Amino acid sequence: MVPFFELLIPDAAVDFFTRHPSLLSLLNIAVLIIASLFAALVAKKIATPLLNFFGRHAKLRWFDTFMKNNVFTKLFNAVPSFVIFWAAHYFSVWHTWLLRLAGCVLVVVFIDVARMINKSILEYYETLRIAKSRPIKGLMQIAMILVYCFGAIVIVSILLEKSPLLLLSGLGAMSAVIMLIFHDTILGLVAGVQITANQSIKKGDWIAMPQYGADGEVIDIALHTIRVRNWDNTIVFVPTHKFLGESFVNWSGMTQSGGRQILRSLLIDVTSIRYLTDEECETLRKIGILKDFIDEMCPREGSRAFEPQDSGLTNIGAFREYARAYLRSNDNLRQDMMLQVRQLPQTQYGLPIQIYAFSKLTASVQYESLQADIFDHLFAVVGLFGLRLYQSPSSYDIRDVKIGENN
Hints:
Helix content is about 55%, strand content about 10%. It is α+β, with helices and mostly antiparallel strands.
């Protein structure tokens, strides 16, 4: 057969290239490469309008995602390989290397297409409702690692003209080394599968993992790392497999339940606890939410002089009842969940009166504001019951003591 380049030059120049066969071969190869690239360009120019026309009329979301990522147009990058395959037999010297080149380019093209298909599938999946509870990014990354590994094996087998199975058998003998290299990848894969199956973490969840400085929203779940945006807008990268071997807190259950726990205590100075007098009962009777309670515990008949067998009413008991009634009247608290005001064991800092309730407001700003409002009120009203809050002596207290001694 007549080489390609001989068809494109005058007869006068044929003798020159005949005397320099290596130069003629290089020129033929250059013409072949240019022709193959031109064929790919023509194929894209013809196919792209047809694909756009189909996309406008089909109105398929997955097809639009594939078009956006150029999945179909990248397939035409394989055209040069097919042209080289067809023309390789014209080159007696370079025949084998051209076939190898075409084979390697074809594998690289299909790896690139597979990468874009993987990306498109993941983007389309992220638009589905199930994506939040069933993330597949880690699995898709594993799939791409397998594609890369398989592609590399095929390319090496093409260059060496050996069977891929022979190379795979050699890799089996290096399994220990492979396990060492892909240790984190394998752990990440196992963790990703279990996270997806158990739905222990989802994008958008609020998690806390103090040992890694993570306390915020999960923004990405990948094969090797899980990204968490903390509330101060810092980003923490936690290895995926750490979520299997170490503890963490997922606050999504709180958000889904619609109730966020309020659990704080007021420390009461025990020396201020005593029985109420009749006058104090009359004063507290004027508080609307306490009236029925005071009427029951402090009847108006007779004197309220304390007798050992009399149960009486203490100021701490009246305060607990007031706090309970106050919480019951708060529309921002869940009345269908646990709500109580309880007394904890006495400590060296006083008697803890614990507020145990659930807020309807789960967002941090609104939740903290509600909690502050509740305790602002309780701190302010505790003095009406003749109670004092415990506070360690401050420099101001010590100064007052010294001034009193000097006087």
